[in-house]
Design a protein that fits this description.
223 residues; alpha/beta; two-stranded antiparallel ribbon; 8 helices; 37% helix; binds NADP nicotinamide-adenine-dinucleotide phosphate
Amino acid sequence: MTDSPRIGLIGGTGREGLGVALRLVHAGVPVLLGSRSQDRAEAAAGSLRSRVPAARVEPAENGVVIASSDILVLSVQFAGAEATIAEHRHRFRPGSLLIDLTVPVAFEGGRPRFVELAEGSSAEHIRARLPESVALGVALKTIPAHALAAIDRPLDCDDFICGDTEDARARTLEFVRLIPGLRGVDCGALDAARVLERMTLLAITLNRRYKTQGARFRVVGLP
Ligand SMILES: NC(=O)c1ccc[n+]([C@@H]2O[C@H](COP(=O)([O-])OP(=O)(O)OC[C@H]3O[C@@H](n4cnc5c(N)ncnc54)[C@H](OP(=O)(O)O)[C@@H]3O)[C@@H](O)[C@H]2O)c1
């Protein structure tokens, strides 16, 4: 019997990372919860346990999480992604999978603006900075933190995934299956992230126009 891959969140203390962690521990999946600060990681782990008393969650600094995980979810603010990878580059396990959910959005005067990147997307920007031995998948970019946090309500939506290799996509799809209520939809190569990240901007716009917080997507017509 092989051990289950260890799952860690880099920046698991934020709204999105904590929401992903909540859905995972609620489904009985153990997580390592990372932060730049051990204290913030412990506080976030405590908040998970208050919602899911049986939560299997281990708080740690991001560097420890990176060195200990087979699957990592990068859930930091986009502005901090490059520095986080640079600081911990040597700690990634060869053969590990990084799942990127960052979206390059800046808020100016309360309005969201897509931050244009030379590489085309946040995922490709991150690919260019990751060690070659680490596979990169994209998931969860269009899943709102608000919906993740509402644990009593099914997510009931699609999650668009892409990745830099077929194997990365297969592993990312497998990861998405751990979260009940998400259907993983394979969008192909990593440059699909250019579309997916802009879809998040659309979801933010819809939330504002319709005065809601949980706008997300479902594709019809797929087998
Ligand atoms: N919110 C959503 O609905 C949503 C939906 C889809 C995708 N996303 C993406 O998810 C990511 C996180 O968003 P969020 O809403 O969860 O933001 P957030 O609540 O501000 O949390 C992000 C976490 O990132 C870490 N962080 C912040 N600045 C950093 C820096 N300079 N360097 C390293 N780490 C830093 C912080 O962790 P520590 O201070 O504990 O280290 C913080 O808890 C973003 O890339 C966002 O685009 C969000």
